[in-house]
Amino acid sequence: MTLAMDYLGLDALLSAEELAWRDTVRAFVRERIRPRIRDWYENAVFPAELVPEMGSLGLLGSHLSGYGCAGRSAVEYGLAALELEAGDSGLRTFVSVQGSLAMSAIHKFGTDAQKERWLPGMAAGELIGCFGLTEPEAGSDPASMTTTARQAGGSWVINGAKRWIGLASIADIAVIWARTEEGIRGFLVPTDTPGFTATPIEPKLAMRASIQCDITLENVEVPADAILPGAAALRGPFACLNEARFGIIWGAMGAARDAYEAALDYALNRSQFGKPIASFQLTQEKLVDMVLEIQKGLLVALHIGRMKDAGTLVPEQISFGKLNNVRTALAIARQARTILGGNGVSMDYSPMRHANNLEGVRTYEGTDEIHILIMGRAITGIPAFS
């Protein structure tokens, strides 16, 4: 790798197996995503035909073990997220929703029967899952959710609404979090259950190559064994959210890297005043700033990944990574666009697409403000959420 692509030689910190896996995912992105992402993004199309291919590569629930899952390390999962988001945040989001949210909920909290029923098909890309936590009036404050589940004979009846739920309109199974007499619990709801309706949210200015939906649940009846027995209170969904946030720490740096590479290539080949714009001091300053922040962000991601694999990572450290890397990546994408000048607002170049997507990434799985307050509580010992 040249200094332009890996200034500090960070590849040396990865094992041969990790590098081979990264290169496999990078090749998939290069061959299957990059050639068509402009059209998918412009036309707001999620390429569902790629789902089985992602399954065959072992990308779905890759960090989980058993039940057809690849059992890869946290760092390997992160490297996959990095490469996928270099293609587009929407495709990384699919893998995150499927594996880190829906599959993780079943894997962490489900019965053996639930795991056997759903996880092998989800790992193969034959079944798609979604994760219903956020509500129209309960985003950053999920404790205020109003969706309810009540027991009726041998069944549970669920009523309520969810919003910004990835994949819901194409999902086969929904993990729905609802308030019960015993507190907040998770339920596995097949999406063909009467009373379950998922409606895509359109139009969007970000995440256009993915699907986010409104869900309504009107007297949705599921059997008694639909409950996830291992998940009690908000600790359940938060454990899954932290899996997704971990992927974002890496994925954001993929978007940043791609924006930087687009700007660098443009600067070397675009001439003004008789010479390449890469020769101008202000352009070089912008490129250097991007390299500094990308390399630092990758070090943050790798260190957090190593801690996760060692079992020493705590949620407050995930907040550090998500807060830092997403807002850094967004700044890089915006700066990269300035090097492209007016051409940067066209679909021919990736930085503005990445910037739009990162506005969404910055908001979901905890806004900047939420992660600031999580870190503030860890630093001071004083919760400032209310």
Itemize the secondary structure elements and their pairings.
Layout: H1 16-33, H2 37-42, H3 51-57, E1 65-66, E2 69-70, H4 74-87, H5 89-109, H6 112-123, E3 129-132, E4 148-152, E5 155-166, E6 173-180, E7 183-190, E8 196-200, E9 212-223, H7 235-269, E10 271-272, E11 275-276, H8 281-310, H9 315-339, H10 351-363, H11 368-380
Helix pairs in contact: 1-4, 4-5, 4-7, 5-6, 5-7, 7-8, 7-9, 7-10, 8-9, 9-10, 9-11
Structure write-up:
The protein has eleven helices and eleven strands. The chain is an alpha+beta fold and 386 residues long. It has three domains: 10-123, Butyryl-Coa Dehydrogenase, subunit A, domain 1 (Orthogonal Bundle); 129-226, Beta Barrel (Butyryl-CoA Dehydrogenase, subunit A, domain 2); 235-380, Butyryl-CoA Dehydrogenase, subunit A, domain 3 (Up-down Bundle), CATH 1.20.140. The strands form four sheets. It has a four-stranded antiparallel β-sheet, covered by helices on one side. A three-stranded mixed β-sheet has the order 3-6-7. The protein has a two-stranded antiparallel sheet with strand order 1-2. A hairpin with a 2-residue loop joins strand 1 and strand 2 (69-70). The longest helix is centred in the middle third of the chain and has 35 residues, at 235-269.
Give a quick precis of the structure.
With 386 residues, the protein is of the alpha+beta class. The protein contains 11 helices and 11 strands. It has 3 domains: 10-123, Orthogonal Bundle (Butyryl-Coa Dehydrogenase, subunit A, domain 1), CATH 1.10.540; 129-226, Butyryl-CoA Dehydrogenase, subunit A, domain 2, CATH 2.40.110.10; 235-380, Butyryl-CoA Dehydrogenase, subunit A, domain 3 (Up-down Bundle).
